Each structure stands twice: as structure tokens, then as C-alpha cells.
Fold these 3 entries.
Entry 1:
Amino acid sequence: MSLEARLEAATTEYQKLQKDITNAVENLQKLDSQLQENEIVQKEFSLLKDDSNIYKLVGPVLVKQDKAEATENVARRLEHIQSDMFVFFSFFNFFLFIVVIWICIVPL
């Protein structure tokens, strides 16, 4: 394979990696936004009295929800988001490791 062909192949792979990293960062930003939003909701719930009315938007309708149930739902959502972020960082670190290996091993 000529040097020009190898450079072109390496450039194509590099562009693909850039696209993958961009997508991964966008996904992380979405998760971080959801995490912050749910943390704010959790803090607001902690300020409410136990007999306060809480309403959840289900489609176009507001549905009354028990404070304990709503608080539990937000706590579960936070756990799920944090778990997703942990998985994301684990895979992203592995991905970066593979990229570094690829850069070091694949000769031009």
C-alpha cells in the first residue's frame, strides 16, 4: 500500500474517531443536564411539607402525585442517571485507551 493510500486511510479513521467522540460528548452533556435537573427537583422536594401537593406532567395533563412517591421516583431517576454516567465514563476511557494504542501501533 502506498504512503498516500495509508495516509488517506488514517485520515478517514481519524475523522470517524472525531465523530464518535463528538457523539459521546453530546450524550454526556445530555446526561449531565438530566442529572442537574433532577438534583434541583430533589432539593425543591426537600423544602416542601409532607402534605404539599405535587403534580406530574403526563402528556398534556397534570396528575396529582404523593410526595413520598414523587421523591422516590426522583431518587431512582438520579441513581439511573449516575449509573449511566459511570458506564459512559468506563466505555469512554476504554475507547480512549484503544485510540492511543491504535495511534501507537498502527504505522504509517
Entry 2:
Amino acid sequence: MQNKTKLVTVITLNYNNPFIVDSINSVLEQTYNYIQYIIVDDCSRNFNTNEISCYIDEHQPGNIVDKIIIKNSKNMGITKSANIAMDNAKGDYIINLAGDDIFYDSKTITEWVKKFEDSKANIITAYRIAYDENLQKKLEILPTPRQVSLLKNSSPEELFEVLTKENFIFGCTTARTKQCIERCGKYDERYHYIEDYPWNLRVLRQGEKIFFWDRIVIKYRTGGISSPLQFNAQYAQDTKLIYKNEIRPYTKHPIIAFYYSKHWLIKRNLDKLWLPIRHKIKLAILKLIKL
């Protein structure tokens, strides 16, 4: 039975996102009826707080018991915006939903709360399905079976070492208790775009267990800030700082971790160059087929 005494905070960060209403509808469709909904917009061009507030009021079925909508006066970045949301979060459990993603189904939050209650976990991560931009074509389910095995069978110390080489704990599929955030701290604002990865590395060093839940929780729309096409100098700088601050001083294998960090940066830069070319080639082939 749903525990109505547990408040759940859903946090949506937004920046110039054309799909924000889809994300909002996904929250309004949830069967869980004790939700605090926080939206933080990072100074988008066409984001109107009053319009969004009225839309939620007009369409919600009663499951939103508190809503906070904030528009930053200037662009502050993902990490700062996430901490602004955290400062306003009152829920026992805190769940992230990006402004271009949607929950997998209407029971996602209800079942997430039950999983927290049954497992007594402080951090729970799960699966996401990646889709194309229109959420029509399924691309892949992550994490992979190998990564899931590592999540289930590694100690915090072991998982930290694994994550120094690859990150497969996604912010969009990871929920935390408020007590855990109060104990471990908020996101590190030295990083502009990447908030979840350094936080996960830190809490693993502190001995926190990250539980894996065998459920798909998010329909992930490709093309967001973490996608290769959106890769930029600031994102690269964040990656270098994470290695310097969160990995090199603590890992047992700094040279190996450095190699993987450099390899990832090179791959992202190459992907950014190649993916648009591949898309143009694909369109050209389709046109030839139709002739």
C-alpha cells in the first residue's frame, strides 16, 4: 500500500528546453499523491513562471501538494541550479526528472517509494531507456548487464574504483533520501555542468552503498547537455577537474584512471565532429532510396 506520509520531491532542471511540458505531464500522471514539484529554469529565453504554474494548477489531479517554480536571473549552470532546488526540497525522497525526459510509467514514483521502504536504502539507481528526440524509437537500455552486475556485487570502495574509469550511475535514474543528502552534502559547485558524477564518487568514498533496482524508471531523450553534440569546453573542463579533485588523490590506479579520462575526452570530441556527418550521410542515403 502506498505510504502517503512520505513526501517525494521531484526536481526538474530546465534550460531552453522545448519538451518541458512533456516532463511536467509525466509528473502530473503519477499515481503517487504526495509530491512536491520543484522546477528551476536557468534563465531560458521563453520560460514564463506564471504560465508554467497555471498549467500545473489546471492539469494536476491533486497529486502535487506543493510546487516551487524558480527562474534564475542569469545562467548559473546545472550544478548551481540543482543546489537551488535542493535548498527548497522538503521530501523524504528526492527524485530528478530532466526537462526533456519523462517517467517510464504512471507508477514509477509509487514503486520507487516502496523500494526505498522495503530496502531501507539511502540511494537507489535503476534503468533508463534511451530514445530518439521524439521518444518514438528505442535506442538502448542502460546500464548494461555487466554494469548492473558491478552495481549489485561491488562494495562502495570497489565501485568507486570502477567509476574512476566509466560512469554508469545516471542522475536521471538515481533517487536519494533527504537524510542522505543532509549527511553527505549537496553537489559541488566547482563543476558547472556535471553534478551527479562527482557527488557519487564522493559518497562512495564515504562508504555509502548505492543500491540497484531492476526497473526502468526513465524514458531518456537523447540530445541533452551530456550528449556528444552538446559537448563543449566547459564540460571538458569539468571532466578534467573531476579527475584532479575526485579521482587522482583517492584511486589506487591513478595512471589507469588518467588514461580513461583522456580517452573519454578524445572520444567525445570525435563524436561531436562525426555524428552530424553521419546524420547527413544517412539522410542522403534515404533520399537516394526514395528516388
Entry 3:
Amino acid sequence: MKNQRRQRGFTLLEILVALTVLAIALAAVIKVTLGATRNTAYLQDKTYATWAAAEIMTEARLGLLALSPTGNQNAAAGQWKIFDRVWYWNATLTATPDPNVWQITVVVRKTAEGGSIVQLIGYWPVSPARREAAALT
């Protein structure tokens, strides 16, 4: 009589199939993680740019920027720094059909020549004294 022992363990084919399934699953996890990382970076940039635009708009409303909807002072540009990053902005002040309201448009970019990340448009009432002062410039 022959003494046959039954072999135990996995065949080479079973191991290769398991490794293939594992590789596909890991690739999917890496792809999802990379997408989430990109989205987080984009949202962080968008948040900082929105803060910059709101800050510039506030400075314009307080009269800290030399802007007037008439004459040649209707635009300003500069840089805004937050968390060791520099943001480039342009602000344009325009008159509206209502003489008591001005419109300001603030555009924020990551680079001086890059595309805008945020464009914020705001309106505010203008006092007659400020409107007259702007007409003189």
C-alpha cells in the first residue's frame, strides 16, 4: 500500500489571483486618496483667496484703497500675504445706474499672470459727500 499524503496549501495560480485582486484594490485606494488630497488643496486655495478678496473689499469700503468710480482711479492691484503665501489681487470700482450705489469687483490669483481663483463682486451705498469727492478726482 502506498501512503499518500494530502498536500495542503495554495497553488501558484491561487496566489497570483489573490495578489492581482490585492493590487487592483490598492490602486483604487491610492486613486481615491490622491483625489481627496487634490480636492483638499483646491478648497484650501479657494478659502484663502476668498479671505483675500473679502479683505480687499473691506479695505476699499473703508477708503483705504485709492479707488474712485470716475476718472483714472477706478482700479487697483496688489499682493496679500497669508500663511507664507502671496496672493495677487485686482480691484475695480465702477459706478452703477443708481448714483447712490457703487460696485466693486475683486479678482484674486495665485500668480501675477495666472487665472483667477476667486472673483468677488460687492455693492455698497455711497454718501453724497463721498460721491462728490470722487467726482473731483
